Amino acid sequence: MTAAGDVRIVGLSELSATPVRARLLERHDRFWDTDTRSLHHPVWFHQFGGFGALAMDAGGEDVGYVLGVVTADRLAYLHLLAVRDDHRRSALGRRLCRWFDELAVSTGARVVQAVTRPDNEVALAFHTSLGAGAHLSRNHAGSGADRVVLTRSLLPA
Q1: Are the beta carbons of 22 and 46 closer than 8 angstroms?
Q2: pLDDT at 134
Q3: Predicted local confidence at residue 14, as pLDDT
Q4: What is the pLDDT of residue 4?
Q5: Per-domain residue ranges for the chain?
Q6: Euclidean distance between the first and final Cα of the chain, in Å?
Q7: Which residues touch 75 (CB under 8 Å, ≥6 apart)?
Q8: Angle in degrees, CA 140, 142, 144, rounded to 5
Q9: CA–centroid distance for 49 within its chain
Q10: Dist. CA 123–CA 120, nearest whole Å
Q11: Residues of the chain predicted below pLDDT 70
Q12: Is residue 95 helix, strand or coil?
């Protein structure tokens, strides 16, 4: 558990996965402008929960979260990164990414990737501001479902 300011970041492995997932889905629209419920599969909270974290304010409210995993070939995949609407532009997204990056590096990851829709300007701007390169992947999510793969190094520059 790390604390800074009035928001603390807690690894999902320290929490009970089922109620956390239920709370985040219940408050989905405070975190997302599009419907991402299908991306919140229980496996991200149970089996991969050790690579996820929840940001909570001083009152214990959920204000952000990150879900991801590190593969056997040392690729860190950042599956979801969300900041509640009233905590955006507070650097919380960057803090959550830093938490994930540090954990990924500790497990041997050298690269982190995220995937988004080509029209998701906010995600594209955020990840490129962290140094990610963007690559359009045609039919990445099925026929006609292009995605942008954002890749950045976790090695020191």
Answers
A1: no
A2: 98
A3: 93
A4: 45
A5: 2-69+81-91
A6: 28
A7: 109, 111, 112, 113
A8: 90
A9: 12
A10: 6
A11: 1-5, 157
A12: helix
pLDDT of residue 67: 98
Q: Are strands 147-153 and 111-116 parallel, antiparallel or unpaired?
A: antiparallel
What are residue 26's phi and psi, to 5 degrees? -65, -35
Residues 6+ apart with CB under 8 A from 106: none
The pLDDT value recorded for residue 98 is: 97
- Nearest Cα neighbor of 62 from 16, 108, 20 is 20
Integer Cα distance of 80 and 88 in angstroms: 15
C-alpha count within 13 angstroms, C-beta hemisphere, residue 1:
7
Give me the half-sphere count of Cα atoms (radius 13 Å) on the Cβ side of residue 112: 27
Token pair 């994930």 in the structure block, residue:
100
pLDDT at position 23 is 97
**Quick check: helix, strand or coil at residue 144?**
coil
